[in-house]
Amino acid sequence: MSDIEQISLPNPTESLKVCIERNPKLLQSIKESPSRFRVLTGDRTTGALHVGHYFGSLKNRVLLQNWGVDVFVLLADYQAITDRNVTSGISNSVAQILLDYLAIGIDPAKSTIFCHSMIPALNQLMLPFLSVISMSELQKNPTVKDEIAMAGAQAVSGLMMTYPVHQAADILFCRGNVVPGGKDQLPHIELTRVIARRMNNLYFEGAPYFPETELLLSNAPLLLGLDGRKMGKSLNNAIFLGMSEDETAHLIKGAKTDSNRTISYDPDNRPEVSNLLLLCSLCLGVVPEQIAEEVGDGGAGTLKRKLTEALNEYFREIRTRRREIAEDMGYVFSVLREGNQKANAIADETLAAVRKGMRMVYY
């Protein structure tokens, strides 16, 4: 275990402070020299994507792509079974997410969309990566502990416990050096950096074959679901990108608010009303306080009507494009096929380099 313990995981508080301080410089570097960066991002294939995903990450993926950054977008179908063993819906989820990606503007000519289970060499990298990480390091990962607690599971699968290492393989197979995300992703990124250092030291004579990936912190606001809980695919509280205008109106009409007729933006004391104001502000490009002032004593009904109109207008073009793309699913899956081919070529090259470094090339 001496090799494993040579490089310790950093203090979480100090790491977050460094990350926050570093982020403005990182963002500026990406803007100035986009060709120096390769971004890895993606989604679990547990259902179609909703407006929380859009404002939280999808919109920024398109922005990075259009800056000229090499963006890899992962359909994480293996991660979909970290906390469940039902796979019957994954195929439909993959199709729906592909439609969402293409509709919002992810361009297959600029970005690579690929799928976990279709990249064998990526998954094979987990074995040497696991060999340089101790069980105690996996057990201490706060994000894994939180997700296990949220799932309320009596038993935890090995995949759930080791998925931070799988995530490291996702990032490092293509030698990604930037991952956009929230601060909850920092423990995973720190583990990825440690794996990169240990692999470099053990098998590449200290040369930086694997980059030390950085987290690009998102400043996107957290959107609640229409019932005041976290917006989730399976909680029946989300507005999905592929919904019709009538479905959107129906959901917003039933959104939770409060009894105070005067509308104000007060996230601490009026979270549900403030969430509707925030979503409306993201669609209209103005601050939530301005919308609250415009609605005034009009009450929740007026606010909901305003939000419905703003959201349907904002997503109208995206939804139209999504319906048009859905008419040719052959094209949609050809995008995934081509992305998988590119990802497989890179993963094969990376695995070959690792096997050579480990002296496991026998003929």
Structure report:
This protein is mainly alpha-helical and 363 residues long. The protein has 2 domains: 248 residues, HUPs (Rossmann fold, 3-Layer(aba) Sandwich); 82 residues, Tyrosyl-Transfer RNA Synthetase (Orthogonal Bundle). The chain is built from 15 helices and 5 strands. The protein has a 3-stranded parallel sheet with strand order 1-2-3. Helix 3 links the parallel strand 1 and strand 2. Helix 4 crosses helix 14 and helix 9 packs across helix 10. The chain is globular. The two termini are 30 Å apart. The mean pLDDT is 91.
* DSSP E strands, number: 5
Output the helix-strand order: HHEHEHEHHHHHEHEHHHHH
Give the assembly state of these chains.
single chain
Q: Order of strands across the widest beta sheet?
A: 1-2-3
Q: What is the molecular shape?
A: globular
* CATH homologous superfamily classification of the largest domain: HUPs
Percent range of helical residues: 55-70%
Number of domains: 2
Architecture of the largest domain, according to CATH?
3-Layer(aba) Sandwich
Predict the CATH topology of the largest domain. Rossmann fold
Query: In this structure, how is the largest beta sheet organized?
Result: 3 strands, parallel
